[in-house]
Request: fold
Amino acid sequence: MNTPVFSYKNAESFFDKQELDQMGKKAAKAMEELESGTGRGNDFLGWLHLPENYDRDEFERVKKASEKIRSNSKALIVIGIGGSYLGARAAIEFLNGTLSNAKADGMKVFFAGNSISSSYHYELLEMMKDVDFSVNVISKSGTTTEPAIAFRLFKELLEEKYGREGAKERIYVTTDKQKGALLDLAKEEGYERFTIADDVGGRYSVLTSVGLLPIAAIGADIDQLMEGAKAAHDDLAEKEFEKNPAMVYAALRNLFLEKGKSVEILVNYEPSLQYFSEWYKQLFAESEGKENKGLFPASLNFSSDLHSMGQFVQEGTRIMFETVVSIDSPKYDIQVKEDDKNVDGLNFLAGKTIDFVNKKAYQGTVLAHCDGGVPNLSLHVPQQDAFNLGYLFYFFEKSCAISGYILGINPFDQPGVEAYKKNMFALLGKPGYDDMKAELESRLK
Ligand code: PA5
Reply:
C-alpha cells in the first residue's frame, strides 16, 4: 500500500546540510527518549504503540454501537471539546467531505459542546426536535464545562422525545475508565460506555473510542484507519535520522524556529482538510506552546486563502514556513469543457481536469513562496481514504512528540488551559473560588 511521502526539497535552499545534521542529532536523542519512555510526561505515552495494542474488544463494541446508531438514528450529536472532538471532526470531513450533512441520505453528524454559544445550541436543539438522533458525549475528565452544559440540553431533549428508557438506548458515553462525574452518571443510568485510557491525553486520543465511534458512525472503515496508523507506527520506529520522516520533519521545524521562523502554516488545497488542520493546531499548540517556547501553529486553506492571507505569506513579516498536505489523486475529478463564447478566455484549459488546475496552482504557489522567503515542506498523500488518514494522524502525533522533546518541553501536559477556567469559575460564583471573585471583578470595572 502506498503511504504519505514527506519531502523538504523546496526548503533545502534555506539551510546548510550541516545545520540539519546537527539538529538531526537532537532529533535522534529525542526519539530515544520517547521510545525508551525516559522523557518528560512519560506517563502519557499510551498513544505511542496504540496502533498495535489497541483494545480489540472495545473496538468491536464501537463497531456494534455504530451500527445501532446507523439503524435507529438519522443524526449523531457528538458532544466534546478540544481533543474530545477535533480528531473525529477532522476524520469525518476528510473522509466524507464538507457537504455530507447537506446530502439527502446518510448519517448526519453535528458537533456540540465545543463552544458556549447559546444561539448555536438553540438552533441545533430546534433542528433535532424532528429528527431521530443519538448522542455521543465525550469527556475524559467528565467535568469540562462546555460539553457538560451541552449534554444537559441534549439529554433533556432525548428524554422528552423517547422517555428515560428510550433515551438510554441513544446515549453513548466516552470517558475515563475509572473516575469522573460522567462515568458515575453513565453507570447510574446504564448508558453504554467507552473508555479513554489514563495514559492517552485528549489531543492524542483520535485513534481510541474518542475518535473511532463518531468516525464509524458515518460508515467509515475504522479497520483501514487503524491499518494506516499501524503502517506509520512501523515506518516511524526507524532509528536512523535520514530514514525517519517524523524525525526529519521535527528537526526541520526546530531548525526553522532557530532561524526566526516561528510560525508553521499547515496548508491544504482541499476544503475537506480544513478540520484536519484544526486537529493539527491543537496537537502542536497544546503540546509545544509552554515555558515561553514553541512554534505558533497556523493553518490556511488554498487556493481560497491565497486571495486573502496570501498577500501576507508572500510579502509580510518573514516569520513563517509552510507544510502542505497534498492529495495526489482526488476522490472525484471533473473535466473543463470547451465553451463557444470563451468570455473568460479559459478554452486553453479544455480537456484538462479541475485537479490539474489545482495542482498547477499548488506548484506556482510553492515557487512563489520560496522566492518570497517561505520554505516549503510537503506531505504527499496518495489518496484521501481511511488508511492514509490513519497514517497522517500517527505521523503528526509522533512528529509532535519528537519536536517537543527537541524543544525541551513536556509535550503531554497543558497547564496553561487552566488559567481561563479558574477565572471563569470564580466569575460564575462556583463554590470554592470565592477568594478570587472580588479581585477579578474589580479588574473588569
Ligand atoms: O488535549 C486535551 O487534553 C484537551 O484539549 C482536552 O481534550 C479538552 O480540554 C477536553 O477535555 P475533556 O475530555 O476532559 O472534557
User: Anything to note?
Assistant: The pocket of 5-phosphoarabinonic acid is lined by residues 81-84, 139-141, 144, 147, 201-203, 286, 414 (CB under 6 Å). The chain has a mean pLDDT of 96.
